[in-house]
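## retry 2 of 3
previous attempt timed out at serialization; input unchanged, resubmitting
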Amino acid sequence: MTPGLPLYVDSSMLSTLRACKRKFFWSTIHALYPTGRSVHLIAGAAFAAGMEAARRLAFTAGSDSSHQALLEVALPPFLREWGDFEPPDASPKSLVNTFSALSEYLELHHPLRDVIQPHMREDGSPAVEFTFAIPLVETRFPRHPSGEPFVFVGRFDMLGYYGSERLPVIVDEKTTSSIGYAWENQWSLRGQFLGYVWALQQLGFSVHNVAVRGIAIQKTQFKFATALPTFGHHLVARWEGQLINDLIDITETFKAWEPRATEEKLVEGYWDMNLADACSSYGGCAFTTLCEAKRPQPFFSNYIRHRWDPLSRNPVTELTSTQGNGDSKCSSCQPLPWAPSQPTSSLLRPPPSPPSSASETSTEPGPEATSG
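## retry succeeded, writing output
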């Protein structure tokens, strides 16, 4: 597989770049991923698949929406996502424990009684597992080295309305191992959510809030929490400015590096190292072996080549040595078969502009419609 810079951009890639450009080089340009499967990705994907099925059933007219019926429809997709994965013995995120957490969560937040109700598509289905692809065609955005526009892509659990005032919200459910006293305070500047809000606004939705729902899966109990951060116009504008700066940095670095790269000099002088907390945070960076080695190539066998597909529940897919280059790493991110100059999403039409009381930060009506 030839190293390359993909056309698509998502929040995980941007977060990696901001933490350490060398890590971005290994994970995105070289498409390396540690061998083995992440219990956090597997459990999160299985939980999301079960929740999607339960929500769809609950909002199907005439269906049985009892708790038992929701669990019965959630189990098959949950098991498909889990597959034959065996989590580490010390992990509380076992198959049984994770599904039990899903069961308790559905009792606490039954789709029909939840304070957050989904936006409904024109076909009557709930806006769950929402995906988007926004081509960055305006002149303020730098172009990919190929000359094509970058495409900003993402996926979240649901678009809905909070409370009796129907405050538009993006819902993102996060499985975790613990929820501490400061859990709700960590989201106010989270680039992931700022990007979601920006993308929804490009699609015509007047959204400024994200409902972050934490599901702490522990050995003997489960804990749940909800945070509701607000992202005003000034924060979203700053996020866009940072996106532009990051894309300029990526493209200039890539164009300087690519013609000079050799087998013996893969990264020197271009993809800077953080050499600080990024090497040890969250259990340690998976690429420290490559960064410490005089010649990193012999250690590539400790990694797989992967396709990072941010529009998939489980975004890591192993590639064979003959499967394409950096531009082909995401099978579902390209805006085609839609018109390449148009933003796309899993919704066909935004709702009417909400009353001004629905969001303190929003006084402007959104566009009337955006076709997908």
